[in-house]
Design brief:
It is built from 7 helices and 15 strands. It is α+β, with helices and mostly antiparallel strands. Helix 5 (about 200-215) packs across helix 7 (about 260-275). The structure holds pyridoxal-5'-phosphate. Pyridoxal-5'-phosphate binds near residues 175, 178, 201 and 239. Pyridoxal-5'-phosphate binds near residues 34, 199 and 238.
């Protein structure tokens, strides 16, 4: 039975309930984080908590807990699960108020945390993605719980037997429905710069950090759709999927249709980095 944390208490998942007037439920008024745990160690804790701070600040909320308090909760929940690789989900909403937009009514945030095993899917042999218009709002740098566009986009991908939708806004690649995007052309790695159309992915930043350490050059620059369609390699990154090669895009092979050599190298470095922890 999974144990979760809800507003100061640890309890079985089946016994964790919130008030229907929670603003997370009525307005989608909250933010979240997904933090991977590899070999029982919380991965990139500081980076995830910094992004949480930024998300909360953007929605006019303060972080309700200190770093030590978050870490204590994570450690307790991770200990209750058998699997060594897990994914911590945390959500902070503005709490329970009457159904009124006014945020000054809220004074008691709802804090929910759980940790679930990472179920390894076979993604490293390459997956199929579709391209789609980026139908989301203009504050995608906030990790907001309001994920309806991403849910729809992932469903559209699934309808075409694909696992991810790569999003295009005004002819430029932004990111995946739940991932960041990299392309490789003539052995050079490109990824879109961080702005309000892109979630600042922790895995994205780590990949760039690892590339720098290995003296592999990369370019953070806008990617136009033609560059995506003509790329030798496309990868997506996320905390739980890690670095995943796209081998088919909209039914066309990416490059030669096989996993690329730059992905192999980068993924190897990434896996080595994880083991060093
Ligand atoms: C829209 C979006 N972009 C990028 C990412 C990747 O972020 P991270 O590497 O921090 O998991 C996610 C992860 O869920 C996401 O939802």
């Amino acid at each position: 039975m999974t144990t979760v944390y809800l507003n100061g208490e640890y309890k079985p998942l089946a016994e964790a309930f919130i008030n229907v007037l929670d603003r997370g439920f009525t307005f989608g008024d909250g933010v979240y984080e997904v933090i991977p745990v590899f070999n029982r160690k919380v991965f990139r804790l500081d980076e995830h908590l910094e992004r949480l701070d930024n998300s909360l600040q953007s929605i006019y909320m303060e972080n309700p807990l200190s770093k030590d308090e978050w870490f204590t909760i994570f450690s307790k929940l991770v200990d209750t699960e058998k699997q060594v690789n897990q994914s911590i989900y945390l959500q902070v909403t503005r709490g329970v108020t009457e159904r009124d937009h006014d945020i000054s009514l809220a004074d008691n945030p709802t804090i929910f945390v759980m940790s679930r095993p990472i179920v390894k899917k076979d993604l490293f042999s390459g997956i199929k993605a579709i391209t789609h218009d980026d139908i989301r709002w203009k504050q995608c740098d906030i990790k907001a719980i309001t994920l309806l566009p991403s849910v729809i986009l992932r469903h559209k991908a699934k309808e075409q037997d694909a696992k991810e939708a790569i999003l295009i806004r005004d002819g430029m690649v932004t990111e995946g429905a739940a991932s960041n995007v990299f392309i490789v052309k003539d052995n050079i790695i490109y990824t879109p710069p961080k702005d309000n159309h892109v979630l600042p992915g922790i895995t994205r930043d780590l990949v760039l950090e690892i590339l720098s350490r290995k003296n592999i050059s990369y370019v953070e620059a806008p990617i136009v759709i033609e560059e995506l369609l003509n790329a030798d390699e496309i990868w997506i990154t996320s905390s739980t999927w890690e670095i995943v090669p796209i081998v088919k895009l909209d039914n066309n092979p990416v490059g030669n249709g096989c996993v690329g050599k730059m992905w192999k190298k980068t993924n190897q470095f990434y896996q080595e980095f994880k083991k060093e922890l």
